[in-house]
Amino acid sequence: MTVKFFPLFFKNDCGMTPTGVQIIYVLVPITIALFSGVGQKLAAAGFGRVQTIMLCKVFGVSALLSMVYLIKFRSRWEVIVPIYLFRTGIMNSTYPLEESILMDYVPKQRRARWKSLESIAQFGWCGSAALGGYLADKYDYGFTFGITACIQGSALFVWAFLLPIIPRVEQKVESTEPRADKGTINGPVDEDTGTNLKEPLLEPGP
Predict the structure, then answer these.
(1) Residue 90: which of 22, 32, 17 has the closest Cα?
(2) In 10 A of CB 13, how many CB atoms?
(3) Separation between Cα atoms, residue 132 and residue 126, nearest integer Å
(4) Which tens digits make up the pLDDT trace of 2-57?
(5) Contact (CB, 8 A) for 50 and 163
(6) Mapped to the 3 state alphabet, what secondary structure does 18-63 carry?
(7) If we measure between CA atoms, which residue out of 109, 130, 132, 128 comes closest to residue 120?
(8) Most buried of the four, 41, 63, 159, 202, by CB within 10 Å?
């Protein structure tokens, strides 16, 4: 709802130059990459993928709400910009975890169907931007940011349904292929030293 209007907010309300606004959007993908690495490590450490996603969303929504609260300091970009970078980085860092859940729990024949829903989501994203523009014109950017935070926060209830389905610690799948004995691959093994014998102890019979 508000993503498309952040550049206008920085330029018109925060008084930043176009160059300064573009510098922000150079830093955004770097921030996302950093938070993505942290999130994947946290999930792999046993915290859980869904739990990590929800935690990132909570931090992201909280950061957006803090921007609403600190909107009175919008003339000081050094206050608003770091919060925006943190919010955007941590909110968009969960995409790899979301894709991994999709690949693990959706059958192959249905993955294309779910991926096609992204186009519908993009359409809704553009439609929400139109609504956000209307609200920004009628009220202000702070009001629109607050509405966006509420909508994003409500998505946590949807993610909560996955908590009992997806375990925190994923079980490692052991290989079902039979393992060959050392002796069958590298020749006879000395039982005392565990090393391979260059020659068999007994010569084969005639």
Answers:
(1) 32
(2) 16
(3) 10
(4) 777 898 889 888 889 999 999 999 999 999 999 999 999 999 998 999 999 999 99
(5) yes
(6) HHHHHHHHHHHHHHHHHHHHHHHHHHHHHHCHHHHHHHHHHHHHHH
(7) 128
(8) 63
